[in-house]
Amino acid sequence: MDKIIIFDTTLRDGEQAPGASLNKQQKLEIALQLEKLGVDVIEAGFPVASPDDFQAVSQVSRKLKKSIPCALARCIKKDIVLAGEALKPAKSPRIHLFLATSKIHLQYKFRKTEEEILSIAQDAMRLAGKYCEDIEFSTEDATRSERDFIFRMLEAVIKLGAKTVNIPDTTGYSYPQEMYSLIRDIKDNVPNINKAVISAHCHDDLGMAVANSLSGVLGGARQVHCTVNGIGERAGNASLEEVVMAIKTRRDIFGDMRTGINTKEIFRTSRLVSKLTNYIIPSNKAIVGKNAFAHESGIHQDAILKNRLTYEIMDPREVGVSSNQLILGKHSGRHAFKERLLVLGFKLSDKQLNSAFERFKTVADKKKEMFDDDLRYLVEDEIKPQKPLWSLKDFYTHSGTSTTPEAKVVLLKKGKPQEAVSGGDGPIDACFKAIDKIVGIKARLEDFRLEAVTSGKDALGHVNLKLMVKNVAYSGSGSSTDIIEAAVKAYIDAVNKIENK
Ligand code: KIV
Ligand code: ZN
């Protein structure tokens, strides 16, 4: 077997997606799921960025048993020291150093010569080596760098102990053949390259992050950087699920290459990341989108019934997609509810189970058929990691074609009700304005998305929204059979994040 190492950077580069910020509890929850998924290396954060990120890396390092925790650092003393300190609780930590090698970065970002950059990298390698043995070095903007300089840089850092050398397509500029030839050239021109693993880190600005990563693998890379659902800076990173399933599905191309990913955990991981980052997965997203395994045309449906291989290249069960069958109704008992949640991967405490079951009963009263997706949203709402400062007690709206919309909202803060009344452009806007009056926050609504979790007039509505406060984005989500209530819950979720900050 030829192992392809999966380096997940959902918690670092993924978190750089605008508005996707995660707190340390959320990072830990995702890291533990990534470990269950079988990810080899988990980049948990950039400790110098904030005390919260430092603690997130530290907490993840303490809890991981199999996956290697990794922290990012520039080639700057403070970054390296903090990365080393944050990783202290880990059994096998990795420091990930990065330094740009392209002319444009050297000239405008650093105003330094190649020799000066080389020497900064060497000093950083020496310092990082004092904290751990496992050091990965990235030549930032590699795909726009002079190859000869990359070769010199890689030779120098490998000499000083870099065990992995990562080749980033930082701007998502590369093309599959180019990535292939770059990796091959590195293999052919860096004299000590056999002492390190070559890695690919590709961004999706031209929609080629996955293709470029896979070409890198064919060229000789044995580690791939990726993120769940492909989230990340700008257009995002190579998506983990696509890279892994391409390698698994196209055995004719990838031969005996294997990742250590338990693909049955892909769907659950994708949903968790989407939920905690509030990044909606597009319906047509490969592998994890709602329609990824849906067959609409009659011709396709007919052929699939005769032999599913006619139109299906992967079995949805391989990636953990459940059949989304009709499962529970208002007469279902607590036992059936708990059993179904276990199948869906939710182990709740007794307290969480009681509260989720109560909510299930209320929703099942309004909605006759409860599907797996309904249950997921309902339960995920119940198990938000922190006790929120604000919660919804009650609301009332009044609107129509010939009347000014108005809303009254009652929130609870530490158990005490506070209420406000407001008008607005519509009932949802009026509710949001009433909430603004109660909490005293001036936020601008940047994004608002409503989707039906399943089909039918009584489907659960799920709202994802983004609020901007002083140029910082805060996301929130909420679900209910009443879309105004879903929107109000999402708004309160975002407000709680603002308050936490
Ligand atoms: O895109 C990039 O170059 C990065 C580096 C920090 C590896 O994210
Ligand atoms: Zn990146």
Gross CATH architecture of the largest domain: Alpha-Beta Barrel
Q: Tell me the structural class.
A: alpha/beta
Bound ions, cofactors and other small molecules, one mention each: 3-methyl-2-oxobutanoic acid, zinc ion
The CATH superfamily of the largest domain is identified as Aldolase class I
Helix segment count? 17
Total strands: the figure is 18
Summarize the main sheet.
8 strands, parallel, barrel
At the fold tier of CATH, the topology name of the largest domain is TIM Barrel
Overall pLDDT score: 92
Low-confidence stretches: none
Oligomer: single chain
What fraction strand? 15-25%
Q: State the end-to-end distance.
A: 47 Å
Give the strand line-up of the largest sheet. Answer: 2-3-4-5-6-7-8-9
Which CATH C-level class of the largest domain is it? Alpha Beta
Helical amount? 40-55%
How many independent structural domains?
3
What's the gist of this structure?
This protein is 41% helix and 23% strand. By secondary structure, the chain is an alpha/beta fold.
Structural write-up:
There is one protein chain. This protein has 501 residues and is an alpha/beta fold. The chain has 17 helices and 18 strands. The chain folds into three domains: 2-277, Aldolase class I (TIM Barrel); 327-383; 390-500, Double Stranded RNA Binding Domain. It has an eight-stranded parallel beta barrel, surrounded by seven helices. Strands 13-14-15 form a three-stranded antiparallel beta sheet. Helix 1 links the parallel strand 2 and strand 3. Helix 5 packs parallel to helix 6. The model has no long low-confidence stretch (mean pLDDT 92). The structure holds 3-methyl-2-oxobutanoic acid and zinc ion. 3-methyl-2-oxobutanoic acid binds at residues 13, 98, 138, 140, 168, 170, 201, 203.
